[in-house]
Amino acid sequence: MPSPPPDWVKALKPQGPQGSELLAQERAQSNVNVEKLSELLHTKEYLERQEKLLKLLQPEKVFDKSQNHSLGRVERLQRSLAKGKRLQQMAVQYKWDADEYLKANDLIGEPTPYGLHASMFLVTLREQGTPEQHELFLRRAEKYEYIGCYAQTELGHGSNVRGLETRADWNPEDQTFTINSPTLTSSKWWIGSLGRAANHAVVMAQLYIGGKNMGPHPFVVQIRDLETHQPLENVYVGDIGPKFGYNTMDNGFLLFNNVKIPHVNMLARFSRVDKETGKYVRPASPSLVYGTLTWVRSNIVLQAGGVLARGVTIATRYCAVRRQFQDRDAAANSEENQVLNYKMVQVRLLPLLAAMYALHFTGRGMMRLYQENQNRMKASSSTSEDTRGAGPEELRAGAELLADLHATSCGLKALASTSAGEGLEICRRACGGHGYSSYSGIGPWYSDYLPTLTWEGDNYMLTQQVARYLLKSARAVLAGKDAGNDTARILRTYLDRRDKGASFDVLDTDADIVAAFAWRTAHLTFEALKHRDGEKRSWNSLLVDFWRLSTAHSQYLVVKNFYEAVSSPELSSALDPETKTLMHHLFQLYALHTLEREAAEFFSSGAVTVRQITLARTTAVMKLLDEIRPHAVRLVDAWAIPDWQLDSSLGRYDGKVYEDLFRRASQENPVNDFVFDPYPWNEAVLKNEPPKSKL
Amino acid sequence: MPSPPPDWVKALKPQGPQGSELLAQERAQSNVNVEKLSELLHTKEYLERQEKLLKLLQPEKVFDKSQNHSLGRVERLQRSLAKGKRLQQMAVQYKWDADEYLKANDLIGEPTPYGLHASMFLVTLREQGTPEQHELFLRRAEKYEYIGCYAQTELGHGSNVRGLETRADWNPEDQTFTINSPTLTSSKWWIGSLGRAANHAVVMAQLYIGGKNMGPHPFVVQIRDLETHQPLENVYVGDIGPKFGYNTMDNGFLLFNNVKIPHVNMLARFSRVDKETGKYVRPASPSLVYGTLTWVRSNIVLQAGGVLARGVTIATRYCAVRRQFQDRDAAANSEENQVLNYKMVQVRLLPLLAAMYALHFTGRGMMRLYQENQNRMKASSSTSEDTRGAGPEELRAGAELLADLHATSCGLKALASTSAGEGLEICRRACGGHGYSSYSGIGPWYSDYLPTLTWEGDNYMLTQQVARYLLKSARAVLAGKDAGNDTARILRTYLDRRDKGASFDVLDTDADIVAAFAWRTAHLTFEALKHRDGEKRSWNSLLVDFWRLSTAHSQYLVVKNFYEAVSSPELSSALDPETKTLMHHLFQLYALHTLEREAAEFFSSGAVTVRQITLARTTAVMKLLDEIRPHAVRLVDAWAIPDWQLDSSLGRYDGKVYEDLFRRASQENPVNDFVFDPYPWNEAVLKNEPPKSKL
């Protein structure tokens, strides 16, 4: 029924100049070496892996993306499971390592029902199971005989893990646990891969021994029959319904009616119940668990740059192709202007372009710190096993690094994911009307990304952790017990210089920009400390101050990491001087644009003067926009996001924006398979029988 | 296949205290007279109409909302057309007037394919057609024999109407027009009701007479056969595909291959082509068209309060039901705290609660101004027809009022729709994880609302109109040619007092808050004027300043309108003193929270001191949150949005949040009708044959 375009339509071209010509022109006007910059950002190995996987995945019909945005949830979920299956088959066939499997998942562009099995279920079994439990559960899970999920969040309990209601009661008589859901709000909820796919779950439940609550612990529970895939008796499980995004994932609910499981099903690497005595054995090293969360958050920071880069790539290319209005000061009959030439568009997009670089380098910095810390912990635990013993100084330094890393990861996770999520929506709007089409590629990506702002610690909740750490650090500095890390350093610097005042030269000296951000953090820290310790204000009344403090501190960390990256010898040797200068401009734009948006805090902390802020806004930022503008397209090209992954008519590398929008609307849109009966007095909605459609 | 909950599940209740108890408690702690406040906001007639329509609509199966978020686009569109048909049948059966029809559309909760027929198509025929054309087109359109749309935007041309490419060439030989689409980018695009429903279109095309372009004009063109509903020859038309929201609307594309239409098909009330001579006759009164756009924008302002109110109602009720963590300063074993008690939640939600009232009263003020202007124009045109003649003074005053109204509507449309759209997303996030579920009711509403930020003038583009008007006003004031309106007044006040300085008492005097906002507008206006006229800066380099200026001015207008409303005798006589005081608190919260967010501009304009801003943030706003908190639930109740319209588990009036989430997930979720085969080595995705499902 869909009528293919007649010849007179096929003969039509977009009004000139063509998108492909405009992008060619953009690329011609900049000398940025895209290949070198790509390698610096991603490494050569990464780029080769991407190329190799693309060649394998793109031809497979099961990975076709054309109907993703038109289908209902049932069919999307079925197709997504089929994609997950095929990926798993290919992983075995081509012997993919973990990086390859993850990258392949990225490229197909949607979460599948295997998502939480392949990540949290396997990781939890691996990290929290004993060797015996590895044999029993992990081996079969790795072979996808057990498909699992990680069931923590409940209908009435999200952030507050201690509030979980699901119970696991120890039965000394037969050495089992009874898993039970005492209320409706204790239903597990939001659990990825649980709704339709999983036959096992790691269930976080309050462990009770002799009626005494020992806190939440992980239990492996079978929930569906391995043959029929029907729920087991006394298990009520299903999918929680449609969502703002992530609709190819079967987030599920789960209730237990006194289900008995054997002793071995409590994951027992860290804490356990002694089978014979029924005694609770305390966790060996709680800081290890602490470490996993830090790793998860650091990863979110690292990914945030790439998440944002998808939106910025699409919007930048499209705004170079799209032309609208003449410049008001131009000659009367001049051509319409590229939208990217308007300052109002530049001031929205180019700081995001800078932010994606900033977040990327910051994420790398975080991962490096995390690795250092892991190495140090391994070293110190191996020395202590050797009974040579880590001295108390070493242990204290280790604990302090971990606390710093934990706070840093909390604050940066909140800032980075908020920046990326909100940045994507700014990109979408910068695309004007067409940004609203699913074919823009931004909306679906934004919807799927948004949960990141809430999970692994709600972005507002997390800021309390950062504030608590900064208050603690400030108390230590005041007491002369200085941790010797960067946080202590900036607090001390502030105390030392407070009387003299700051007067940083933010307009001309990059290092002074970093110092101004540090100054603001320190100022807000001591203000908050005064309120809490001096004026004894309630914690609740200070939550807004804490949120501001955490944001300020995290912005400092991003600015500092970005500065270190653009000043590093690694970057200098990888890039030509011109591109290196451009990286400095991106740093300055990110920093000064942030400074200008947060002007009130910078001013009232005395870090800069009102005059400096005005100059930053009206002169420095405007000049940086001019400097960066000609290189914008090459700077997004360097992120090397393949067209197939972008899945965007607007963001195509070749600039054939209008041709592609038209092709998809007329040839890939199932709505056009049907002829409607539009008259209200006719009951039927369709004029014709629905064809055996492409659906 | 969907297993209904077994008895042990049915017996489960949420952990206490129950949501219904918590909301009862909320309502008990406030004396706000919800009924009185509702009537003040909406009028008694409105509330009765809503009640009456609800009773009619809710029982009709066709309006069932339970599957809306699970279905694919084809089925959603079919169902939506069925809803549109039923509404139209009921409109005739019950003899609904325009208000009733609009309200019924609101209640069913989604745009239907009749949307643009019932609005823009009919309005355009009515306002721009001659009596002959009314006979020919409008009568049949009102009877839904002609289903139409308004085809202006093109694939390559959105905001810039002058850039449209579709041509209408006058053929003197046979007194017809030839409509043609010369390029791919000239395809009409985004046209609501066009994709599948319309058989006619009002097409905006460049009128050419003897090869000379006379600018864009409206033409009525038949596009589909009235019997078969198939496209006519040389017409290529279809739906443009899936979108971020608005998926129940068939936004369409449309191309013409030299289609001839008769002379009478050019809508000719304002300008026309003389049939005999082929001469172009100029528009009688271009300002009337100008008026329609102003009306459309004023309506967006008026609706923005209600749009936001949906999100705020949902989030406020849910945050009163949801409990998470103990207060950190509370006793160790105290119960979890209502989320609404946390300052970090209050500071996000309560300013939005204030904003929805602010926007509502501002919208009313706008509509009043619009009516005054319409009356004045009618009066002056009738006097001039009477040849008694309006004097030049009267005409000038009329033109000035219109210019002021135009600028005001542009700026407020941008501010109001941005505030409502972004506010909804803040509400969604304030609901934590469950905000992401479609059952929250916020996400779908947000997605459907977002185009409002782009259409009827992109919110960034519009700010240029405001700036241009303010620059013009400033030049007039400086030249002593004062328009005598409020804009001139605030500019003059600023000039008079500039040397003495401002020093407004924003913390204690409401009128001074308004004055401080006026001062900031005036300051930014003269700054911009200095850059443009004094320093001869390019228009492009000032776009960011203009955007800030427009935002500042529009915030002033909202603050002023809100202040006038809460100080009005109408409000005083309608409300008890306690509720009246609360309205003043809402005004103060909206104003001071805005002032604090825009602190840098208030400070650098000299409107307030840094000390005042700090106090506003740390003391005044915090105190206002405390004052308003106990009344929050009643203040949203007063908006009287029916549960059926909210379509939200989280925002239910009765607080049965968890019961409803669970019911929908387990009983209304088609995904649970299917059993999947989860094993990657089995090719099939389903274990069972899909049942003849509810879909």
* Content-based structural category of chain A: alpha+beta
Helical percent range of chain A?
Answer: 40-55%
Integer average pLDDT of chain A: 93
| Oligomer class | homodimer
Report the radius of gyration of chain A as a whole number of Å. 28 Å
Task: Kindly report the name of the CATH homologous superfamily of one domain in chain A.
Answer: Butyryl-CoA Dehydrogenase, subunit A, domain 3
Distance from first to last alpha carbon of chain A: 13 Å
* CATH topology (fold) name of one domain in chain A: Butyryl-CoA Dehydrogenase, subunit A, domain 3
Indicate the CATH class of one domain in chain A: Mainly Alpha
Chain pair sharing the greatest interface: A-B, 151 and 151 residues
How many helices of chain A? The count is 23
CATH architecture of one domain in chain A: Up-down Bundle
Count of distinct strands of chain A = 11
User: Globular, elongated, flat, extended or rod-shaped: what is the shape of chain A?
Assistant: globular
Cofactor (chains A, B): FAD
Pfam family, one (chains A, B): ACOX_C_alpha1
Family (chains A, B): Belongs to the acyl-CoA oxidase family.
InterPro entries (chains A, B): ACOX_C_alpha1, Acyl-CoA_ox_N, Acyl-CoA_Oxase/DH_mid-dom, Acyl-CoA_Oxase/DH_mid-dom_sf, Acyl-CoA_oxidase, Acyl-CoA_oxidase_C, AcylCo_DH-like_C, AcylCoA_DH/ox_N_sf
